[in-house]
C-alpha cells in the first residue's frame, strides 16, 4: 500500500527524506481515527489521548521496522498492544472498583442509551472489545482485524459473536421496561 | 445448492451486518431473514448496537487534534529524547541510586512474598531460581509498559551496554541477537538482583510486543528451562554456570519458547563465561 516505505534505507539523502516525509504524512492521517478508537477502548478522554501519544512515539521510533503494508492497521496494532500492556499493569493493582459499583441513579432519555453502551463495552473482555470496535466503529474488514490481533479470521468471528451476544444480554437486562416491546 | 440457500449460519448473519457477505449470498440471506423474524430481530439489534457505538464515539474523529498529539511536536520530543552517551551514563548512576531506595519498599518486597507463598505450597524448587523468576517478572511488568524510557542504554550502543552490564554484574555477559526471529534490541538497564546487580535487556517485535531477558548471578544449582505461566505473561528460567537467566514475555508459550531457546543457545554457545 505504501511502496515508498519499504524502499531500502541506504538511499540518497533526498530520497530518504522523501520516504520519511511520506511515512510521517501517512501516520499523521491516522491520528483522528486513533483517537476515536482509543476513546472507545478506554472510555476516558485523557487516558485515550495518552495512549495515542504513546502510539505515535512508538511508531516514529519504529519507522525503520515498518516494511510497507497497511499503515493504518499497523497503528491500530500498536495501540491495541499498548492498551493490553496498560491493562496488564492495572490488573496487578488490587481493589480496582468496577464501573458498576459507583454508578449513579439510572438516567433516562438518550443519555441513558449512551451510558448503557459505555457500560456494556466495559463488560467485555479486551480482545472482544477490540474486535467489535475495530469492525463497527473503525470499519476494518475481518481480515484486517485478524491482522491487527495476529489471529485467524475464525477467532475474529467468534470474538465478534461473543461481544455482540454479551452486549445484547446486558442491554436487555438493564432495560427491563423495553424488553417486551414488540 | 438448495440446502445451502435454506440454511444460513450465524457467521453469515454477522457478515451480512458488517457488509462482508459475498454478493452471491446476499439474496439468500435476505430472503431467509424475511422468513425468520426472530433472527431478523437479532440482526436489527446488532445494527442498533453499532449505531449506538458510532453515535457515541464517532464525533471524536472530527474533534481538532490537541497540540500534544501533533506529529511535529511528538517528533521533536522523540528526537530530543536521545541524550548523548556521556549524559546517559550519568543518568544511569542516578537511576540505580533511586532504584536502590525503591527496591526496599516496592517490588522487591513483592518478589519476596511471591517466593514465600510458592515455598508455602510445598513445591520443591531451587530457591535461587524461584526468587530470580519473581524478580524478573516484576521487572518485566514494570518496564514493558514504559514507552518513553524503557531502557537506560539504547540498543544502538550494544557494545557499551555489554561492557557496562558485564562489569556491574561481575560476569562476562552476552547480549543475544534475536533479529532472526523478528526482535530488535531496544536496549538494557541495570537492576538490583538477588545477590547483587542484574542485567536487563528488552527486545521488541514489529508491532510493539516486548520480551525481556533478566540475568544475574544465582547461587542455586544448574537447572533446565523452567516455564512459569502468569495470567497475561510468562517466563522461562534457567541457571547455567552460576548465572540465572529469565526470559519473559506475553503469555504465548510457543512464541516465548522460541525466544527462550534462541537466547539459551546463544548464551550457551558463547563460551565467554569463566569456565
Protein architecture, described:
The complex is a heterodimer of chains A (182) and B (275). Chain A has 182 residues and is mainly α. Chain A has 2 domains: 1-95, Rna Polymerase Sigma Factor, Chain: A (Orthogonal Bundle); 107-182, Winged helix-like DNA-binding domain superfamily/Winged helix DNA-binding domain (Arc Repressor Mutant, subunit A, Orthogonal Bundle). Helices cover 70% and strands 0% of the residues of chain A. Chain A has 8 helices and no strands. In chain A, α1 packs antiparallel against α2 (45-61). Chain A starts with 12 loop residues before the first helix and ends with a helix. Chain B has 275 residues and is an alpha+beta fold. Chain B has 2 domains: 6-62, no CATH class; 82-270, Phosphorylase Kinase, domain 1, CATH 3.30.200.100. Chain B is built from 10 helices and 7 strands. Chain B has helices at 2-6, 10-17, 23-35, 37-57, 71-80, 85-105, 107-120, 127-144, 158-169, 253-270, and strands at residues 153-154, 184-193, 196-204, 210-217, 226-229, 233-240, 243-250. Chain B has a 7-stranded antiparallel sheet with strand order 1-2-3-4-7-6-5, sandwiched between helices. In chain B, a hairpin with a 3-residue loop joins β5 (226-229) and β6 (233-240). In chain B, α7 crosses α8. The longest helix of chain B is centred in the first third of the chain and has 21 residues, at 37-57. Chain B is elongated, with a radius of gyration of 26 Å. At the A-B interface, α1, α2, α3, α4 and α5 of A face α2, α4, α5 and α8 of B.
Amino acid at each position: 500500500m505504501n511502496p515508498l516505505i519499504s524502499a531500502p534505507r541506504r538511499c540518497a539523502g533526498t530520497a530518504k527524506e522523501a520516504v520519511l516525509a511520506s511515512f510521517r504524512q501517512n501516520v499523521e492521517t491516522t491520528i483522528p481515527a486513533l483517537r476515536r478508537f482509543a476513546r472507545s477502548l478506554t472510555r476516558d478522554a485523557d487516558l485515550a489521548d495518552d495512549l495515542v501519544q504513546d502510539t505515535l512515539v512508538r511508531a516514529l521510533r519504529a519507522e525503520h521496522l515498518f516494511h510497507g503494508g497497511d499503515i493504518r492497521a499497523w497503528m491500530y496494532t500498536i495501540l491495541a498492544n499498548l492498551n493490553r500492556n496498560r491493562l496488564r499493569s492495572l490488573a496487578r493493582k488490587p481493589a480496582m472498583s468496577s464501573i458498576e459499583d459507583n454508578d449513579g441513579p439510572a438516567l433516562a432519555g438518550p443519555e441513558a442509551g449512551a451510558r448503557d453502551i459505555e457500560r456494556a463495552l466495559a463488560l467485555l473482555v479486551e480482545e472482544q472489545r477490540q474486535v467489535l470496535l475495530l469492525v463497527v466503529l473503525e470499519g476494518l474488514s475481518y481480515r484486517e482485524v485478524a491482522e491487527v490481533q495476529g489471529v485467524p479470521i475464525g477467532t475474529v468471528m467468534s470474538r465478534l459473536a461473543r461481544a455482540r451476544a454479551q452486549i445484547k444480554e446486558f442491554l436487555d437486562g438493564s432495560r427491563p421496561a423495553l424488553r417486551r416491546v414488540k | 445448492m438448495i440446502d445451502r440457500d435454506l440454511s444460513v449460519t450465524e457467521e453469515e448473519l454477522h457478515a451480512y451486518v458488517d457488509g462482508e457477505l459475498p454478493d452471491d449470498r446476499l439474496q439468500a440471506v435476505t430472503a431467509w431473514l424475511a422468513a425468520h423474524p426472530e433472527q431478523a430481530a437479532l440482526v436489527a439489534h446488532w445494527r442498533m448496537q453499532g449505531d449506538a457505538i458510532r453515535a457515541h464515539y464517532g464525533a471524536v474523529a472530527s474533534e481538532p487534534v490537541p497540540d500534544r498529539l501533533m506529529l511535529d511536536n511528538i517528533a521533536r520530543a522523540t528526537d530530543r529524547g536521545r541524550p548523548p552517551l556521556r549524559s546517559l551514563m550519568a543518568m544511569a548512576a542516578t537511576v540505580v541510586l533511586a532504584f536502590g531506595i525503591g527496591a526496599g519498599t516496592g517490588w522487591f518486597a513483592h518478589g519476596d512474598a511471591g517466593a514465600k507463598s510458592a515455598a508455602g505450597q510445598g513445591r520443591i524448587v531451587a530457591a535461587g531460581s524461584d526468587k530470580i523468576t519473581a524478580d524478573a517478572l516484576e521487572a518485566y511488568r514494570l518496564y514493558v509498559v514504559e514507552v518513553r524510557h524503557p531502557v537506560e542504554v539504547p540498543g544502538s550502543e550494544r557494545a557499551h551496554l555489554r561492557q557496562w552490564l558485564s562489569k556491574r554484574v561481575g560476569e562476562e555477559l552476552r547480549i543475544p541477537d534475536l533479529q532472526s526471529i523478528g526482535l530488535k534490541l531496544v536496549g538494557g538497564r541495570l537492576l538490583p538482583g538477588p545477590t547483587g546487580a542484574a542485567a536487563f535487556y528488552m527486545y521488541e517485535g514489529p508491532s510493539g510486543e516486548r520480551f525481556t531477558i533478566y540475568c544475574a548471578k544465582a547461587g542455586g544449582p544448574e537447572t533446565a528451562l523452567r516455564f512459569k505461566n502468569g495470567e497475561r505473561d510468562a517466563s522461562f528460567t534457567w541457571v547455567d554456570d552460576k548465572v540465572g537467566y529469565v526470559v519473559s514475555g506475553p503469555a504465548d508459550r510457543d512464541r516465548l519458547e522460541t525466544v527462550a531457546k534462541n537466547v539459551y543457545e546463544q548464551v550457551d554457545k558463547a563460551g565467554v563465561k569463566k569456565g
